[in-house]
Structure formats: structure tokens, C-alpha cells
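Late entry, evening session. Most of the bench is empty. Finally got around to the prediction I had been postponing all week. Sequence below, unchanged from the version circulated by S.P.
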Amino acid sequence: SVSDITDLVNLYRNAKAVIGARMHSLIIAYSCHIPVLGLSWASKVNEFFRIINKPDFCFDIDKTGDCSCDICYKLENEMIGWNYDEIISKADEFLQDDFNQIKQL
């Protein structure tokens, strides 16, 4: 469970991928170089994936049952090429900077 900012930072630090429907979780993960898959409930989620040139990584939340095979395929086949050491290193760097700025507030 996430009860404070430290828990949240650690959650992202340890994530190999984020599957989310909320824009803030997707933006944070993407900005930390953590691979993302979106569950779209609004056009802004679709637009985010269009902007990052990954429209096929976004799935309609109302049709997740219909596209569960596509989601699993993306995870299985796309994750093979992801360099987790690099992802974790970059995420840790960005999150530590953000965490330090938040603590100063």
C-alpha cells in the first residue's frame, strides 16, 4: 500500500512497467522512462499515447476483456527489448530528484 511520498517513490522505483488509466500515473512513469500501457477512459489518455508515438499501447478500458490478448502480447513481446537496468537507473535518478524537491516544499 502507498501511504506517503516515500512509498510512492519506491513503488515507481521498483516498477518494470505501469499499466494505468490515470494520466498522472502514466505521465510519471513515462517521464521516468518506465514502459507504460494505458487503459483509456477519456480522449486525453488516447492523446497522450498519440503524442508519445505509442498509440497501440493504449487500450479502451470498456473493452479490456476483448483486448486482453493484445495487452498480454504487448507485455510479452515488447518487454523483451526493454533494458531494465537502464530503466531502473533512469527512474531512480528522476524520482530521487523529484523526491528531494518535494521534501524542500
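Two things to note before I forget:
The mean pLDDT is 79.
The beta strands are 18-20, 36-40, 58-60.
Will write this up properly tomorrow.
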